Recover the amino acids of this structure.
């Protein structure tokens, strides 16, 4: 399975960047959750350890073998997602959790890995210049099923975070103008249907307040306003670690999860923001660089979709904290508190390292 | 073999990946620029907004420290209670609010308005307490209107309770709302309007120690004053327990003794100065007026002609009467005015400065030396002695023994009393000192007044054969369970400059007074060697008394004193009793002391 060359080719830089970013996360989880019950930062450190072990365990299996079984993984995940709609645990308004003896896990996060693998398999033999209808519909279905299931929980944020994976696959396959337009129309129709039939009031509020955040400063626009105030009041140097009045005084909702970037912005100001963005950017750069190291089409698809997933989530989350994106409940990957999301991201990066270390064909 | 052939041609998708990467690169640059805009360019605007997120401080009052007795009985503790405040800025319409609150809490609207106006200078967002000690019904009524009346703030607070009611009330003191004038002073700088503070007694003296440190919750309020979140919380630190030297049983007896009379009792340990019992009667039940409003009970007590709020132990001023003969004896011996063998003959009356001076025993005591004069409390002997002495010398020794000076006990409001000197009479009365005045002072009359505690202290000094102590009520060594002698008060260097042998002479007189059929014989306790001196101090002059008797006006009796200690050697306890208008000291005060000596002996001597 593993040989010495492959071990020598493990991308330590990438893993280092991964751990660096999650360590930054721990520091801010500590700062933002110090008034909450439960030692969130300790649990997060525990999850980092677990995820790191999982990352290395995963490396020992050739990504091509994983891809071979991806359909089975995918099916298992779908079954769990269906089951969870009936038996899951409600946490903050969504039935997206399975309760385990000491913690809960969120299968909708882990499921992303199987989607990445399955899409890679679907496109591994696709050599046309542009995307075809059959592939578009097929891959659309693959991604659509979990999105619908997760959306029904309803966990709009996680559902949305599947989209970049799909988008990544489509970009590589070659965006056909016609197909893009059709997809856009479909998305709009789906959106309207969702708006009228499926969206909860609070989700609608979030979309309207994105356009008019001042409309209801004490209600739905509150979070956007407070987050912007937090970031803006941080200034160039910030208010100091654990001294952010917005964060520490709990004006900010979900400080240690979705709005952790606002805490960074408030406590470390522009300097801190640029530093964190830079650290993250280096990670993303490394991910994209790995695209060019892949030895086969499967590898390219895996690495690229992982890169898309992490990058888009990061951007959406950050844009959300400064009011440029609706508040959809997407955590800041690696930095926000949350074990399932952390594990998923580590496994995703593990796939990238996997592809990269097996870049030489063993003839 | 072409090495490229072993790999697929991935150049097309690699190019697409490359383009995407560039798009993201641009996005990241845009992101950084946007942060520059809001964090640097628009920083002021957001800073202002963050400052405008109003933080409201909610104070959590600390539990006041307990007050315990020597025997670890809790004499003052705290129970749960509710208070309600108004936050004026939350009123939609102030007048309407007042109306509604008045109905809700069953208050007179004018009373309510007056209450709030008292604190009108406070900021609008500061809560003003409008009622405390709420009943459960009131609490539930307020709670039910929580949403419609955001101007009301219901809070729990620890309320002081004295489980034994009137027990040791003068020692413990009581709490009342801090007054606006007190708020101005440095001592109460940290306190807030509406706080309850110790007004007398231990509660006042040890306010700092009992108080504790208040906790704080920072509440985040939006522009409507609605609480939208909780900020940091600082837990209150409870006040420290104060342990008294009081012995519950002796205190109990002391209070029983006084029941129905007006007077004071002090029991103290002469060795250390620790007070074992401290009673003043009439007393009061502090539980009845610990609230911030309508302290009717308190006003009644304050205006009561018997002055129940007055602590007679340190604020009651009485002529020492015959008790002062001990001082006279010591002063006369030490100043070499007389010796132990000096004798005067008592015929019941003597002419001094062309005025007849009477002994209380009309037939006369016959030949008296100092010891027998103390035993029999012979006036004539001391008139004669006083005739030979200077008033300033007498005053010098009186003050040395602790009379007419503050004892320094750890309770507030102590009176100084007067032991007259030439100087004093000149400044206070603008009159010269007449030699006749000295004769009155010689038997503890005249312009001389002392507190019962001073008498107890001077008795301790005598019992100690000259060692001065400072009386104290709070055992600074912690739990108060230690031996009496271990709780030594800060030792004083200014021990009394009187020879030990003179003390022995005076003590011999007091021993005989109790144990050999003297005036204090009623204080006799078999086997305990009680030494004591009685006193019966005239409250009006003899002429006035005779005039009143002629006109059939009731003549008030004399104040009745007893002060003594036991045992004679290595004294363990001092008992001082004063009964206002109690009659003769030997008849009234001395027998009362017996119970205290007996009980002390049972508890501590064995």
């Amino acid at each position: 399975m593993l040989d010495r060359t492959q071990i020598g080719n493990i991308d330590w830089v990438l893993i280092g960047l991964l751990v660096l970013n999650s360590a930054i996360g721990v520091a801010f989880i500590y700062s933002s959750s110090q008034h909450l019950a439960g030692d969130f930062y300790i649990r997060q450190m525990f999850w980092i350890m677990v995820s790191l072990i999982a990352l290395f365990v995963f490396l020992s299996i050739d990504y091509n073998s994983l891809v071979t079984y991806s359909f089975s993984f995918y099916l298992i995940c779908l079954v769990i997602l269906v089951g969870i709609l009936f038996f899951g645990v409600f946490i903050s308004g969504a039935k997206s959790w399975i309760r385990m003896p000491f913690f809960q896990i969120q299968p909708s996060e882990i499921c992303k890995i199987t989607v990445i693998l399955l899409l890679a398999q679907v496109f591994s033999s696709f050599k046309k210049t542009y995307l075809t209808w059959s592939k578009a519909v097929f891959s659309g279905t693959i991604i659509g099923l979990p999105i619908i299931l997760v959306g029904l929980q309803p966990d709009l944020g996680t559902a949305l975070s599947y989209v970049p994976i799909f988008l990544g696959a489509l970009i590589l396959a070659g965006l056909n103008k016609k197909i893009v337009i059709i997809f856009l129309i479909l998305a709009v129709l789906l959106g309207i249907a969702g708006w009228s039939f499926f969206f909860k009031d609070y989700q609608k509020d979030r979309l309207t307040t994105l356009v008019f955040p001042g409309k209801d400063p004490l209600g739905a626009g509150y979070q956007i306003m407070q987050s912007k105030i937090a970031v803006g009041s941080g200034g160039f140097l910030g208010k100091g670690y654990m001294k952010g009045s917005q964060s520490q005084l709990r004006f900010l909702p979900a400080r240690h999860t979705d709005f952790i970037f606002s805490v960074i912005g408030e406590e470390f100001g522009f300097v801190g923001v640029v530093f964190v963005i830079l650290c993250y950017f280096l990670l993303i750069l490394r991910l994209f660089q790995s695209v060019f190291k892949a030895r086969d089409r499967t590898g390219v698809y895996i690495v690229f979709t992982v890169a898309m997933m992490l990058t888009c989530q990061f951007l959406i989350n950050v844009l959300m904290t400064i009011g440029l994106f609706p508040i959809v409940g997407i955590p800041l990957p690696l930095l926000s508190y949350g074990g399932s999301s952390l594990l998923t991201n580590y496994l995703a990066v593990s796939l990238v390292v996997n592809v990269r270390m097996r870049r030489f064909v063993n003839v | 073999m072409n090495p490229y052939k072993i790999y697929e041609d991935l150049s097309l998708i690699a190019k697409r990946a490359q383009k995407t990467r560039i798009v993201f690169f641009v996005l990241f640059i845009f992101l950084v620029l946007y942060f520059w805009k809001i964090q640097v360019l628009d920083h002021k605007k957001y800073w202002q907004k963050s400052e405008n997120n109003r933080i409201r401080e909610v104070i959590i009052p600390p539990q006041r420290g307990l007050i315990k007795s020597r025997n670890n009985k809790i004499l003052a503790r705290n129970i749960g209670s509710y208070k309600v405040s108004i936050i004026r800025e939350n009123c939609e319409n102030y007048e309407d609010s007042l109306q509604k609150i008045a109905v809700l809490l069953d208050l007179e609207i004018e009373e309510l308005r007056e209450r709030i106006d008292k604190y009108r200078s406070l900021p609008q967002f500061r809560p003003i307490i409008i009622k405390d000690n709420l009943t459960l019904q009131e609490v539930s009524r307020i709670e039910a209107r929580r949403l419609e009346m955001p101007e009301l703030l219901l809070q729990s607070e620890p309320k002081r309770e004295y489980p034994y009611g009137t027990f040791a009330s003068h020692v413990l003191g009581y709490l009342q709302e801090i007054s606006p004038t007190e708020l101005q002073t440095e001592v109460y700088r940290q306190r807030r309007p509406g706080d309850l503070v110790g007004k007398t007694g231990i509660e006042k003296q040890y306010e700092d120690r009992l108080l504790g440190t208040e906790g704080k919750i920072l509440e985040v309020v939006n522009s409507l004053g609605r609480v939208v979140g909780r900020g940091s919380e600082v837990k209150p630190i409870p006040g420290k327990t104060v342990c008294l030297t009081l012995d519950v049983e002796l205190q109990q007896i002391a209070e029983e003794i006084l029941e129905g009379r007006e007077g004071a009792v002090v029991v103290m340990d002469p060795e250390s100065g620790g007070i074992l019992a401290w009673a003043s009667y009439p007393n009061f039940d502090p539980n009845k007026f610990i609230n911030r409003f309508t302290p009717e009970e308190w006003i009644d007590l304050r205006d009561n002609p018997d002055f129940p709020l007055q602590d007679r132990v340190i604020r009651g001023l009485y002529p020492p009467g015959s008790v002062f003969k001990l001082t006279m004896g010591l002063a006369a011996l030490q100043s070499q005015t007389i010796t132990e063998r000096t004798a005067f003959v008592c015929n019941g009356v003597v002419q001094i400065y062309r005025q007849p001076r009477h002994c209380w025993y009309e037939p006369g005591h016959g030949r008296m030396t100092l010891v027998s004069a103390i035993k029999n409390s012979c006036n004539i002997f001391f008139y004669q002695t006083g005739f030979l002495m200077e008033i300033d010398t007498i005053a010098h020794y009186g003050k040395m023994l602790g009379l007419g000076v503050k004892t320094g006990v750890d309770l507030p409001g102590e009176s100084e009393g007067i032991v007259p000197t030439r100087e004093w009479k000149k400044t206070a009365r603008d009159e010269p000192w007449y030699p006749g005045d000295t004769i009155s002072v010689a038997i503890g009359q005249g312009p001389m007044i002392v507190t019962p505690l001073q008498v107890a202290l001077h008795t301790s000094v005598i019992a100690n054969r000259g060692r001065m102590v400072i009386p104290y009520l709070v055992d600074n060594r912690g739990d108060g369970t230690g031996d009496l002698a271990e709780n030594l008060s800060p030792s004083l260097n200014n021990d009394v400059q009187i020879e030990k042998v003179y003390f022995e002479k005076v003590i011999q007189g007091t021993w005989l007074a109790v144990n050999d059929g003297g005036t204090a014989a009623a204080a006799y306790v078999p086997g305990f060697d009680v030494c004591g001196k009685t006193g019966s101090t005239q409250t009006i002059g003899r002429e006035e008394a005779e005039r009143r008797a002629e006109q059939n006006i009731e003549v008030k009796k004399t104040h009745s004193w007893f002060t003594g200690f036991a045992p004679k050697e290595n004294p363990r306890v001092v008992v001082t009793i004063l009964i206002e208008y109690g009659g003769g000291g030997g008849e009234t005060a001395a027998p009362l002391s017996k119970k205290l000596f007996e009980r002390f002996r049972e508890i501590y001597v064995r």
